[in-house]
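> forwarded from #structure-qc
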């Protein structure tokens, strides 16, 4: 659900950004069925998710929310992080949101 982070980390490459978005719907090795440029976006998405999911701050926040929200905790934390990125985006990008 951290769409803004995925867009930001696609380094202003429009094709990579689009491919990054479809990645959640491509399971397992099905990415190999796509063109190389699409595969790059899918793999970038997976790397971003892996990094985020393993980060201690992400895990800590998920654990705080888990008793009340269960498996939705991960989505909620992703949305919080996107909110904080959006509220401080001028520090990272020259163009406004």
């Amino acid at each position: 659900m951290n769409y803004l982070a995925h867009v930001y980390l696609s380094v202003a490459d429009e094709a990579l950004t689009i491919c990054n978005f479809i990645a959640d719907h491509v399971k397992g090795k099905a990415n190999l069925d796509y063109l190389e440029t699409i595969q790059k976006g899918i793999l970038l998405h997976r790397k971003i998710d892996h990094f985020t999911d393993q980060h201690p701050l992400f895990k800590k926040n998920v654990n705080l929310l888990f008793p009340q929200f269960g498996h939705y905790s991960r989505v909620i934390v992703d949305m919080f992080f996107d909110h904080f990125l959006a509220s401080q985006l001028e520090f990272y990008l020259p163009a406004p949101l």
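QC bot note: DSSP finds five helices and no strands in the chain. The first helix runs from residue 3 to 8.
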